Amino acid sequence: MTFRYITTPLYYVNDRPHMGHAYASIHADVVARYLRAAGHQVMFVTGVDEHGEKIARAAAAAGETPQAFADRYTGAFEQAWKQLGVHPDRFVRTSAQTHTEVVSRSLKRLYDAGEIYLADYEGLYSVGQERFVTEKELVDGKLPEDRDPPVVRREANYFFRMEKHRDSIRQLLHDEPGLIEPSHYRNEILRLLDDSIGDLSISRPGRLKWGIPIPWDPQHVTYVWFDALLGYVSPLHYPDGQAFRDFWPTTRHVIGKDILRPHTLFWLAISQALGFTPYQRLYVSGYLLGSDGRKMSKSLGNGVDPLEAAARYGADVLRYALVREVTFGVDGVITHEAIERRLHRDLADDLGNLASRTLAMIVRYREGRIPTPGPYTTLEEEIARRATALPMEVLGLIDDMKLAQALERIFEFIRHLNGYVAVTEPWALARSDADLLRVNTVLHTLAEGIHAVSGLLAPVLPGSMSQLRNLLGCVNDERWAVPWGQGVIAGSSVRETILFPKRSPIDGPSS
C-alpha cells in the first residue's frame, strides 16, 4: 500500500474564509481526490490556528472569550469547506487537547536537548504577524502584509536555536533541489540563508493568556507559529503513532507565498531539531489578484468572495475556475468575468455541449439506449488510444502540482471528441439505413469517451461528473482509469439535461 499525506495551512480564525483560503484548500482537495482515485491511501488535513495575540484582541473587541470567538470562526471554516466540496480526512484545531499535548511534549524535548533558552529581547514587533521583524523586511515602515507598522517591544522570551540549523537547512536545499516548488521560492530562501537568520522567539510572556503554556514555565505561552506548525504532525499522533510512520515521509504541504518563511526557516529547523525528516515537497502558490491587478484584500474591496461565487455559479464551477485560471505558483487574477469565461467557454461550450448533443442523439436515434458498437476505424482507434494514455499523463502532472496543465490535457481530449462529432456527422449517417452500424459505433464511442472524461474530471468537478455518469446510465460508478470499452454498457438508458447552464453577466463592474 502506498501512502500520501496532503496538507493546507492551518488558517488563522480572525476572519471568515477568503478566496486565498479557498484556492489552497481546493487545490489540496483535488490532489487528494486524484491520488485516492488512483489507489493510494491518502490523508488530507486542513484546520485552523486558533491561538495568539490577534485572536485575543479580536475576541475582546467582539465581547467574547477567545475560545468562543475561535469556535465561531472555526465553524465558519468547516461550513465553507462543505459548501466548496472540500472534504478533509482530518480537521485540526490548535485548541484541541490532542494537539496541545503534542506541542507540550515537543517543547519539553527541545528544552531538554538544549535547543531552547531564556533571554531578554528588544526589537520591532509585528502584531499582525505576531513576530519580531527586522528593518530590512519593512517596506515604507511596515511589513507589506500588515496594516500597521511594528512596535518596539522589550520582553523576556524563550528562544529556539534556529541559527544553529542554518547550514544544515542550506545543505538540504542544495541536496534536494525539488523540495520547494516552484524553484524560485527555493532560491529566495537560499539567499536568506546566506546571512544570519538568528534564533526564533517561541514564547510570549504572561500578558498573553490565550495559547499553550510553556510546560516548564506556565507564565509564558507558546508562540503561535511554533504551535501551528506542529499541527501538521499532531493529527498523525507524533511521535509514536503508526500514522506518523506511514504518512509523514510522503508529506506534501500546500501553502501561499506569504507564509513561505515559517514553512522553511522555522519548520525545517524545528523538524531537524526534533529529529524527523522534513516534508517531501512544499508547494507554494502565488497571490490571487483582483480586477485592479493588486493582491486581493478586504480593505481594497477588490476580491471575489468564494462562498458568494459558489452560490452563484455552483461549487464545481468555482473549483474548476480556480484550478484552471491561475497556474499554481504564480500570481494570477480571479474575477467574476474570469469565472464566467471558464464556465461558458470550457464547461458549457466544450464539455457541456459534447455531453448534451451526444445524449440527445442517443435519445433521438437509438431510443435512449447506448448502442452496441460495430467495427472501429482509425478515428475510433485514435480516441481509444488517447483515452487509455490520459490517466497516467494526468496523474504525473497532478503529482507535480501542475493541475492547470492536467486539465488542459483533458480538455484537449474533449475538443478532440467534439471534432470527431463534426467529422463523422452522426445525424447524416442516421438518415441512411446503410450506415446504421456506423451510427452505433460513433454514438458508443462518444458515450465511452464522455465516460472516460467523467472519471478524469471527477476530482475537480465531483458533483457534475457524478451527475454525468448517472445520465450515461452508470449509477454509482466512481472507477478510475476504466479500460476502454468497459465504461458504458450497451443497452443502458440515458437521459438528457444541461450540465452547465450559462449565466448572464452580473450587473455592474465585477470585483
Automatic annotation (TrEMBL):
Pfam families in the record: tRNA-synt_1g (PF09334)
Gene3D superfamilies according to UniProt: 2.170.220.10, HUPs, Isoleucyl-tRNA Synthetase, Domain 1
GO annotation terms (biological process): methionyl-tRNA aminoacylation
Record InterPro entries: Anticodon_Met (IPR041872), Met-tRNA_synth_2 (IPR023457), Methionyl/Leucyl_tRNA_Synth (IPR015413), MetRS_core (IPR033911), Rossmann-like_a/b/a_fold (IPR014729), tRNAsynth_Ia_anticodon-bd (IPR009080)
EC number: 6.1.1.10
CDD domains: Anticodon_Ia_Met (cd07957), MetRS_core (cd00814)
Keywords assigned by UniProt, alphabetized: Aminoacyl-tRNA synthetase, ATP-binding, Ligase, Nucleotide-binding, Protein biosynthesis
Domain Methionyl/Leucyl tRNA synthetase, chain residue ranges per copy: 5-145, 146-359
Molecular function GO labels: ATP binding; methionine-tRNA ligase activity
Family from the record: Belongs to the class-I aminoacyl-tRNA synthetase family.
Name of the protein this chain belongs to: methionine--tRNA ligase
